[in-house]
Design a protein that fits this description.
This protein is mainly β and 108 residues long. It is built from 1 helix and 7 strands, in the order αβββββββ. Strand 6 and strand 7 form a beta hairpin.
Length: 108
């Protein structure tokens, strides 16, 4: 079996502690703008799971946009981890961007 996605493994190993995600192509809810169009934010995932190579997770953002729900999913080819957002008044999920890095968010 192929290896699990390294960003997904990192998120899974850190949760339920807060994790700082760097998201490329992010729109609203993605985080603070950083270099080259990437943004970062601190999230707390209540659950994450692997089903073979597929990855899923659900949680909230703790440093901003705290009333929205966030969902992690792997792309169809398992090459990318994608972040979605659903606001309190929204019925569906909106793609925020691709998670390109994850690290423990100490002290947040």
């Amino acid at each position: 079996m192929a290896d699990l996605h390294p960003v997904a493994k990192r998120i899974h190993n850190v949760q339920p502690d807060p994790v700082r995600l760097t998201v490329e192509g992010s729109g609203e809810g993605g985080g603070d703008e950083g270099d080259e169009g990437a943004a970062s934010g601190v999230y707390r995932f209540d659950s994450t799971e692997f089903f073979q190579r597929e990855f899923r997770g659900e949680g909230t953002r703790v440093d901003a946009d705290t009333d929205a729900a966030f969902r992690l999913i792997s792309s169809e080819d398992y090459e990318r981890i994608l972040l979605g957002r659903q606001g309190p008044e929204e019925e569906g999920w909106r793609m925020v961007g691709e998670v390109v890095a994850a690290e423990r968010a100490d002290g947040e």
